[in-house]
Amino acid sequence: ADQVFQSIASKKLKVNSKKPLSFEQMILLIDSAEGDLKKLLMIGATTGLRLGDCVTLRWSEVDLNKGLITRVPNKTSKSNGTPSLIGIPVDLINELSLTPISQRKKYIFEEWAAEYNYVSASGSHTRRDRVGKIIKKHFESNGIECTREGKKRSITEYGFHSLRHAYVVQQASRG
Questions:
Q1: Residues in a beta bridge with 62
Q2: How do 68-71 and 62-63 pair as beta strands?
Q3: What pTM value is reported for the model?
Q4: Count of CB atoms within 10 A of residue 39's CB?
Q5: Per-residue pLDDT tens digits for 23-74
Q6: Residues 6 or more apart from 144 whose CB is under 8 A from it?
Q7: Rounded to 5 degrees, what angle do the CA atoms 66, 171, 51 make?
Q8: In degrees to the nearest 10, what's the CA dihedral of 94, 100, 106, 112?
Q9: φ/ψ (deg, to 5) at 83
Q10: 3-class secondary structure, 24
């Protein structure tokens, strides 16, 4: 039975990874954003956290005095549960400090965290794409085209995950 498929050549795996943003593009996106969107982009660009981790970041995980985020990433929370320790740059500390202590409830982004965590009673519907649409609209309003046409479908080249790739590139360039 194993020899039946022997004559069929396997396809090459083609990965469509997000492109990293340039430093100039990151600055443009952050400087042109306001309110929660600005804060979200700053967190993504300066910590390398994924969108879900940024949107569901809790104030209890952020120590502005020590300049440290202690976060168990959503992607690995079930497998190992080990928290990541992430330094917070001064500009982000200053931005987060603008939120009065009395308004620091459970999540940094209360409304977006509720959207991200929402699951319908049937379990078949979520609202996770709403924040992504806001981000995509902001990218494109700043001249950053998020998708290009592929042979069979559109391919997303830039998105929030591009901030993570840019963060890695920045850290690697600093050694």
A1: 69
A2: antiparallel
A3: 0.83
A4: 21
A5: 999 999 999 999 999 999 999 999 999 999 999 999 999 999 999 999 999 8
A6: 21, 25, 29, 158
A7: 75
A8: -70
A9: -75, 145
A10: helix
